[in-house]
Amino acid sequence: INKSVIGQIGKLFPRVMGITDGTAYAGQLNMTEIFKHATKSFTYPQLSNYPPIIEDLTLKRPAGKYLGEALSVIKNISPLVRNVEYLGEYQRFVTLRVTYQSFDRSLTQEEVSVIRKDVLKKLEPFGWKLKLTAGLE
Q: How is 35-96 classified by DSSP, letter by letter?
């Protein structure tokens, strides 16, 4: 914490510990140092007075690709994307719930549509494709 060492963890050498099979780890925490940085204050996340728009996107996951890259693109595409939640996967089709929300106005479907198109455009080079469903352009 702030360049102060608050603990250590490490793998123990089996021969030093007299272990013939398995792996052993040990750790220690400097509670005095931790308590120096402790605080009783708590910051609550900012809540919006405006309603979210929530939509589920089902994307075909390309072979050999990880979900993390798609989540990263979606989360970082716009500050209006508040949350991305993994709902499940079936036969390489991944369903994600995307929450859009502003702190200063109600969003329109047109604004969300522009963000979604940007997401799909950025995911395309990685091989991710939207499964076409009713209601999405």
A: HHH--S--PPPP--SS--EEEEEEEEPPTT--HHHHHHHHHHS-TTEEEEEEEEEETTEEEE
Each residue of 92-114: pLDDT tens digit?
899 999 999 999 999 999 999 99
- How far apart are the C-alpha atoms of 30 and 35, rounded to whole Å? 9
What's the pLDDT at 136? 52
State how far the alpha carbon of 118 is from the alpha carbons of 8, 16, 101, 112, in Å. 44, 56, 17, 10
Backbone φ, ψ for residue 126 (5° rounding): -85, -5
User: How far, in whole angstroms, is CA 50 from its chain's centroid?
Assistant: 23
User: Tokens in use for 127?
Assistant: 């091989």
C-alpha 108/C-alpha 86 separation (Å) is 24
- 14 in Cβ contact with 70 (< 8 Å): no
What is the largest distance, in Å, between two alpha-carbon atoms of the chain? 66
